[in-house]
Amino acid sequence: MLSNIFLLKGKNFDDLNHLDIYSYPIDISGKKHKDFIKKVINGHEAGAILKKNRNQNIAEQNIQILTQNSINFKMDSPIPQKIEEQNIFTMCINSEIIIGLNFDYEDNPYDYNDIFEDLVNEMLNNEMCCYFEDEIEIENFLITLFIDIRRYGDEILQKSHEIAFQSSDIFTKVFLFGIDDVGKTSLLRRLKTGQFSDNFYAPTKKFNIEYIQEDDGQLAFWDMPGNLILRKNWLHGIQESNILIYMIDIANQISFKESKEEFWNIANREEVKEIPIIIIANKVDLLNHNHHIDKDQLKRTKKEIMEYFGFNSLENRLWQFIFSSVKTNYNIPKIIDSIFQLIASN
Predict the structure, then answer these.
(1) What backbone torsions phi and psi does residue 116 show, to the nearest 5 degrees?
(2) What is the per-residue pLDDT across 64-78, written as a single tens digit (0 to 9) for each?
């Protein structure tokens, strides 16, 4: 599967000190990766892109051609490379940009050739979504590309393999989202390992997939970052989901307005209207400092949340509301049961 994506950008690939380096989710911009980056560059047609960058006349001709045509970016065919025990698939764009995909060692990069070319072409030459001038724009480009290629690997290639060899297995995609610091990644760690640590996670800025095998089938949890800049990528990750899980932090009422807006921005979209939803009201342990779950208090809190968020107006779809405490493991097993229950009822 795809584990990392990176982008190298510069007018002169000879000068690594003035090369812009972006990567997601693993940072490769440090000095220890310098040799790796040099090998990536030299691997493109035995350093042909270096020669192109040295030739100012060719560069000027390219600029003239690009301004005359509707297509802004010229893409070379991706090439596979094995570098420092890493399985790399890289594409050169306009002789000034290299986009690289880092796969697990056993993967065949050519399985991703068409989707790699199609997505980059669509994002650059059809949608005109990135001009590689703004760091945030580049980061969103990489995250979007990462999600779409990862989804292709997980939902197309892997499913094809399962159909051929394990047709009886059930594959359920669970899309886990919510604003930052509500406990999404901590929930996944609790489900996968049974563990919780107050200091284990800082607010997540990385997209992640975790697989959890249950008696009723395999769950693929897509954990999406909740910080504001990256929320636009929720719509890329949500495709082909079997169930949605939206988490809120009930101990942080200041965040309710923002959390409510983001929930309905997704729930009201036509493409997700038939997907079941589980709403998890997390951090119930913080409602009472003695860590005792007061059922009467929970009833009052649920009524207040339902009224404020308007969850009762969810119509013509299956949904459940669950209080939880990832920290104390309160209702965590119920979340798994509810996923399979809603899937079976849908």
Answers:
(1) -60, -50
(2) 444 334 447 888 888
